[in-house]
């Protein structure tokens, strides 16, 4: 028998089940309890009605929400781009070319160095409430280096994405077609066993619409499902290609035509917004309000990477989305939990409903609104993953 645990005295419980609690999309239950059996949620409801269990944890009036689902990150890398950031903040624009700096450092790193860096950033994200993350290759750009990145990532998450098409490898500067042939051929064969997804940076200076279609179609033939870096730095074909290929997600969506928004509203592709990138490059924000008003499913993620968005903090992204992108606090919390799960086509995470994975975050606050209301404050006090408390913050007794 699995042990049973009840967390009681929860001021606000976010279930993401509209049939629970207040009937809103967040399914808010006040004065709530959650029962965990093994690694799953078994029951949610009012604290006074909670069934008897083996163990009892008092939330002491804190908020409980599903662990964040960060559906877009780039965590297998080496090196540092502090100087590039510093220069950019002194007035220089960002172009896709900066990725080459990280490619050189990543190729030069040992497996142990990459693993240590990945583990450090995952621990950092976990402390901030992220219980599921997707991560990509894309800083190797050789057959061996891309396969190595995916192998290292796959030891930590099921949500691994092959991004050999991040930029054209510097080794193929004069032969982009040759690089696309590699990405769709030998590199794909080496990478597909380690990945669930295939991604491409569809952008001027990276890959155009025809190249992106060829790369994603080749990946799909090897059993990988598409997602796209689309319409980040300029208007382009990425979003419509994502919908056409039934990609799980079109990521960034910063420059959208009305036709792009219509396509997203009428397809099953989630629009994943990554405001850390606009923050860290002083770029115009994606218009979340426009997408939400059109009926598009929106996810919110960090894009954690050393060049254009070096934050692992979903709470920070929530604060930006509410302050600058027209999202309500409820929408931003939904997008960073249930929305992230939708962007990964998962139904077992991003919600606290019977049968879902017992991945949850406790906030030292009476409601989830405080994630935006108290920006920069480390409100995450506990994190549970698969029914086990893995983070417990607090001052050292002394
Ligand atoms: Zn990215």
Blueprint (SSEs and pairs):
Elements lengths: L3 E11 L13 E10 L2 E7 L8 E4 L4 E4 L1 E3 L11 H7 L10 H10 L2 H17 L2 E4 L1 E2 L6 H12 L5 E6 L10 H9 L1 H6 L5 E6 L6 H13 L3 E6 L7 H7 L4 E4 L5 H9 L3 E4 L1 H7 L6 H6 L4 E3 L13 H11 L4 H7 L2 H6 L16 E4 L6 H4 L6 E6 L2 E5 L6
Helix pairs in contact: 3-4, 5-7
Subcellular location: Cytoplasm
Cofactor: Zn(2+); Fe(3+)
Protein name: Imidazolonepropionase
Question: What do these coordinates show?
Answer:
This is Imidazolonepropionase. Residues 250-368 form the Amidohydrolase-related domain. Fe(3+) binds at residues 72, 74, 229, 303. With 398 residues, the protein is α/β, with parallel strands linked by helices. The chain folds into 2 domains: 4-67 and 351-392, Roll (Urease, subunit C, domain 1); 69-343, Alpha-Beta Barrel (TIM Barrel), CATH 3.20.20.140. It is 33% helix and 22% strand. It contains 15 helices and 17 strands. The protein has helices at residues 82-88, 99-108, 111-127, 143-154, 176-184, 186-191, 209-221, 238-244, 258-266, 275-281, 288-293, 314-324, 329-335, 338-343, 370-373; strands at residues 4-14, 28-37, 40-46, 55-58, 63-66, 68-70, 130-133, 135-136, 160-165, 197-202, 225-230, 249-252, 270-273, 298-300, 360-363, 380-385, 388-392. Strands 1, 2, 3, 4, 5, 15, 16 and 17 form an 8-stranded mixed beta sheet that branches. Strand 2 (28-37) and strand 3 form a beta hairpin. The longest helix has 17 residues, at 111-127. The mean pLDDT is 96. Zinc ion (ZN) is lined by residues 72, 74, 229, 303. Zinc ion binds next to loops.
